[in-house]
Write a structure and sequence with these properties.
Helix content of chain A: 25-40%
Oligomer: homotetramer
Distance between the termini of chain A: 37 Å
Largest interface: A-B, 26 and 26 residues
Radius of gyration of chain A: 23 Å
Strand order of the largest sheet of chain A: 2-1-7-8
C-alpha cells in the first residue's frame, strides 16, 4: 500500500529509505541524506529535499549517480538488470517507432556518453521519440557544466513522477498536463453536440470521443500525467454534423477538420476550441 | 491547327463535321444536324446547338449514342478501339487508385448497364475516383427517365471540355475552376511571405508553392480546367515562418496547418485565406 | 420575512391568500382558487397552479382581471392608486427615455385599449422602452383572441417575477438571464488580464469591470434577473493592454473594441468571448 | 493650367521659381537653389531636391524659414496675410472641433514657440485635431535639435502635398492612403451584398456606401489623399441583411457591427474585411 506523507514523516529512518527505494536509481544515499530534514509539510517539499541532497553531493558521487542510470535504448530493455521503473518508462516511450532514425539516435547516444562521461538521461514519460532524438542532438552541443545541469533537471522530472506514484499527501507536485477541446456552432449560436473527435500523437490514434450537450468531451482528452512533448492532431468529424443544413454542398466544404499542434510544456493546460461554421472555422489556444 | 469559330462557321459542311469529329463519341450525326444552324456567335452557342441535336434525336438513336460510349474501367483502357479522347480522359482519372474498392465499382457498373441498358457515363475530367464510385452508386437508384437526363448532362460536360480543346473563338463556355490561397499574418498586420504550401487531392500531392510578398502564390494553385470533385488538403508550413518570433514555444504551437476541404463544383471559384496568428488561425471560403 | 414554500403549504387558507397578495394585480381570487391544490412540491408548481386558475376563469372575470392592470405610462406613475409592485416595475423601465417617441407610444396605447378593451400589459422588467414600443405596435395587429393569449403570457412573466420575490423554496422558476464576457490574448496564447470592460444598454452605461487572471470578470456582468430585451454594447478598452507590445503602431490599430448585440431572450445565457490579436479580433456567442 | 515636369525642367529659371511659388511658405530661395539641379527625372526627385535645399540652408536662414510659417490656430485663419494654401489646409482641419481642449492647445502652442523660437508646424492635411494636440504635447518634450528635425519632416509632408497639386509628371511621390472594406458571408460561403456601411472619423460621418456583388464598395472608402491620423469607425448595418435567415432571433444578435480602428500611417493601405456569421464575426487588417 502506498504510504502517506505523514507515515513517511513518522517511520524509522531505514523504513523511510526503503519506502523511497527506486525513486533515485541505485542511490539509497539520497533518501538517507534527506531523512534528517523530516518532517516534510508537503510532498513537493520532500521532493525538493531529495533533489537538494543530489545537488549537494560531491562531484564524483554525482557522476557515479548519473552513470548508474541505464542507457536509453531498445537494447537496454533486454538487460535483466534494468530497474522496473526504467523498464516501464522506456517501454512506454517506444523508441523503436523512430524506425530508420533509431541508428542515428544510437550513434548520438554513444557520442554523448563519450563526450560527457555519463549516459544520456531524459525523463521519457514527458517525451515522444522524435523529441528525445531532437533533445539529445541539441544537448550534445552543450558545455559539460551546462549539460550536468540539464541532466539533473531531467533527474528531477523523473523522480518527481516516481515519487507521486509512491507517496500520497498534501502539496503533491504538479506532474499532469491537461488537454481538452470544445466545439461551438457559430451558425446556430450554441454548443455543437455529437461531433466525433480523434486525437493522434505522432501519427498514432490515442483517443476517441464525442462532444456532449456542452460541446465538450465528457472527460478531458488527456489529464492523467505529463503530456508528452510532441506533435498532436485533433480531427473533428463534422461531415455528419452538417448533414441536412442549408447552404451545405455535396460533398460538404468541410468533412474532417484537422488541427495540428505541438505540446511544449508537458505539465501545461491546453484547451483547443473549434468555432465551427459552414464555410469557416477558427481555432485558438483557449484557457 | 485549332480552327477558330469563324473558320468553323465558314467552312464546307463536311469539313465542319470533320473538324468536330470525336467531340461526340462515334456520332458524326450530331455535328451534321447542327451544321444548318450556323453561323454561331459564340463557342457556347455552338455547344448548345450540338447538345440540342442530341436531345432532339429519336429515343432509339439516343440510346445507340449512349451505348456507343466505352465502359469506364481499367479494362477498357486496354481496348484498342477506345477513342484517344476517352483514353486520355480515363487515364487521367486513375481508377486503379480505388484499390480494393475497384471490384465494388466494377460490380456496380455491371448492375448499372443491366438496369439502364447503356454503360455508366460520367465526365471523368471533373471527378476523382471515390466520387465516381459514389456517383455511380447514387445514380443506380435513379428511375430510367431520370437517369437518361443525368447521362446526357454528363455528355454535355464531356463534350464541352472536348470542344474547348478543338475550337477557339468568342464566348468560350466556362470549363475551368479556380483554387487559390492567401496567408495573412494577423500578429504583424500584413501579408505573410514565404509560407510553403502543399496541395493534396485524395491524398496525392499535386502542387507546391510559396506565398509571395502579397501572401499569395504567384499563380493560382489550380486554374487550368475543371477542379475534380473530391477531397483536397492544403498544408501550410508555418514552423519556419514563426522562427524567431516572441511568444513562440519550442516546438511551436503550430508547425503545419492542414486545411481539408471538398470541391463540389468543378467550375467554381475557391479562395482559401488563412488568417495566421501565433496561437490562433481562421480559415474561410473567400471570394 | 419571506415565507418558505413549506410554510405556504402549511398555513391557513386566508394567510396563504394574504401572503400572495399583490402577485396578481387586484385579484385575490387567483390565490383563493389555487389554495385547494396545495401542497406544492416546487415554487414553479405553485406558479403554474396560480396561472391555471387565471386561465380557467370565466371570460368576463379574465377581462375584469386584465382591466384591473394600470396603464403603462409615465402618467400612471403619478396615480396614487398604483400598486407598489407596478410602481417599482414601471419606474425601473423609464419610459421617459423614449423622448419624442413617447407620444407615439401613448397614442398606440390608447388605440390598443380601444381595440382590445383592456390596457396594454407587458412584463416591463424584461424590457427596454424601445422594445416595449415595438412590441405594442406589433401586438396592435393581433386578432383579439390571439392578443388575449399574449396578454396572459405577459401576466405569467410578471407574476413569476413577483412570486420569486415573495417565496423561497425548492424548484424556483427560472427568471434570471446571464451575461458574461471573456478575453483571450491570441498573440500570447493566454487569457488577457486587466482589460477594462464597459457595458451599455440602450446607450446607458450600466456596468464596468476588468478582466482577471482568467480573462473573465470576477462576477458575471448581469445575472440578477431577466436581461431586458434590447440593444447592448460591450466596450473593451485594449489600448493600454497593448502598450509596449511589438508590432503595435502609435496610435494602436485598436483602442476600444465595441461589440454590439441584442438580447432576445431575457432568461437566456449569453457569453461573449473576444479573441484579441494585435491586428484582428473575433467574437461569437459562446456557451 | 498645371505644368508638367517636362515643362518645369525646360522653362526659364524665374518661371520655374514662379511656378513653385507657395510650395515653400514665403521662401522663393528654395526653388532658386534647386533650379540648378534640373532636369529632374521624377516629381519625387524634384521634391527631394527642394528639401535638400532647405536642409542645406544655413541655420539662421532655416530658422527664418520656420518662423515664416503661420501659427496653427483658429485665430490665424482670420489673418489676411495667411497664404491661401495655409488657409485651405487649416480650414480643412477644423481645430475648433477640439472644443474645450482648444485652450489647452493654444497654451501648448505658445509654450512651444517660446521653447523653440519658431511656431509649431505640422502637416495638417495628415491629421485630425486630437492628434495635432497630442503631437504638439509630445514634441514639446523634444530637445531643440531633435525638434528642428521633426519640424523639417513636417515641412516635407506639407510641401510634398502642395507640389503634387501643382505639377504632373512621372514618379509622383506617394501622398495618398487607401481605406477599403469587404464583407464575406461565412454562413453561405460567399460575398455579402447589400450591407450598408458608414464611416466615421473622430465621431463625424464622412462616407456611406453599400457592398456590391463582390462584398466590396464600388470605390475605395478613402483614396484621394492622406488618411488623417486619427480614430475611425466603420459601422456595418447587418440587421436587414440577416432578415429571413434561419437561426436568427428577434431582435437579431447583431444589428450594427461597429469596428473602431486608428490610422497611424496617412499614406498606408488599410483594408478591413468583416467575416460575418449569424453568431460570430471576425475582422482583421487585410492586404
Amino acid at each position: 500500500m502506498m504510504p502517506t506523507l505523514d507515515q513517511l514523516n513518522a517511520m524509522p529512518q531505514d523504513a523511510f529509505v526503503a519506502a523511497l527505494d527506486g525513486v533515485f536509481e541505485h542511490a539509497a544515499w539520497v533518501a538517507e541524506t534527506a531523512v534528517s530534514s523530516r518532517p516534510f509539510a508537503t510532498v513537493t517539499a520532500l521532493h525538493e529535499a531529495l533533489m537538494a541532497a543530489v545537488h549537494a553531493a560531491p562531484s564524483d558521487i554525482g557522476l557515479d549517480f548519473l552513470c548508474g542510470h541505464p542507457p536509453l535504448s531498445p537494447k537496454a530493455l533486454a538487460d535483466p538488470g534494468l530497474t522496473s521503473s526504467s523498464r516501464a518508462e522506456q517501454g512506454g516511450l517506444g523508441m523503436t517507432s523512430l524506425g530508420e532514425q533509431l541508428a542515428r539516435f544510437e550513434a548520438a547516444s554513444s557520442a554523448y556518453e563519450i563526450r560527457f562521461g555519463f549516459p544520456f538521461i531524459v525523463c521519457v514519460r514527458r517525451q515522444t521519440p522524435p523529441f528525445v532524438l531532437r533533445g539529445l542532438e541539441r544537448r550534445l552541443t552543450n558545455m559539460p557544466d551546462q549539460e550536468r545541469v540539464a541532466a539533473f533537471a531531467e533527474i528531477a522530472h523523473i523522480t518527481r513522477l516516481r515519487l507521486v506514484d509512491r507517496v500520497t499527501g498534501p502539496g503533491m507536485p504538479k506532474t499532469a498536463g491537461h488537454l481538452s477541446a470544445h466545439v461551438l456552432d457559430t451558425v446556430r449560436g450554441k454548443a455543437a453536440e455529437g461531433v466525433g473527435i480523434e486525437l493522434f500523437r505522432e501519427g498514432v490514434l490515442i483517443k476517441q470521443a464525442f462532444t456532449n450537450h456542452d460541446g465538450r468531451t465528457d472527460a478531458p482528452l488527456l489529464a492523467d500525467g505529463p503530456l508528452r512533448i510532441g506533435r498532436y492532431e485533433l480531427r473533428f468529424n463534422v461531415e455528419t454534423y452538417f448533414a441536412g443544413w442549408p447552404n451545405i454542398t455535396d460533398p460538404p466544404w468541410y468533412d474532417i477538420i484537422p488541427i495540428r499542434f505541438s505540446v511544449a510544456d508537458p505539465e501545461g493546460h491546453y484547451h483547443i476550441p473549434l468555432l465551427l461554421g459552414a464555410w469557416t472555422y477558427t481555432t485558438y489556444r483557449g484557457s
